[in-house]
Design brief:
heterodimer; A: mainly beta; six-stranded mixed beta sheet; B: mainly beta; four-stranded antiparallel beta sheet
Chain lengths: 111, 113
Amino acid sequence: AQSVTQLDSQVPVFEEAPVELRCNYSSSVSVYLFWYVQYPNQGLQLLLKYLSGSTLVESINGFEAEFNKSQTSFHLRKPSVHISDTAEYFCAVNSNYQLIWGAGTKLIIKP
Amino acid sequence: EAGVTQFPSHSVIEKGQTVTLRCDPISGHDNLYWYRRVMGKEIKFLLHFVKESKQDESGMPNNRFLAERTGGTYSTLKVQPAELEDSGVYFCASSRGQNNEQFFGPGTRLTVL
């Protein structure tokens, strides 16, 4: 069965510093990969997705993630974080039309 | 277009009571999903409707949970009787096709005392 691992439950980082949120999944068969974000007191929003094609995908607010099939990873990166990026970030994989989720990583921005 | 809506946003009930959660998907989305996040744990799939039919209910924890989607529009998830371990946030999502992006509602926070 598919599984998704987000090793870091929370990541503190200074404002304007770079950040990487790690995500590994269990299978190397064809997968669709997603990052969702939940801002405080809001619902889940899709941040970016990998379905096929270019292994580097980008969001409109400066995040990017790279699909690495050999390492079964889909890490999320941003070169310079802002206080507004404070949120919980979830990595997920589509398996049999349902989403399998990681445990989530809280991104904590320090001023 | 209007997003996925869920009602209520919060519900506090006592153990043994019944609660019904409602989800209204985006208009035209045939696929509707229920997920749950128990405190401190990962989000777990509960079930998937295609129109009014249950496509996959492998994630339903036990027979105290009953989901319906009469007419293929909104869906309800009833918990009867509720237990302490049912506390968590229940998310609903919808998508146009089965491999399309799933759009999520804000969730219902259920607290069972």
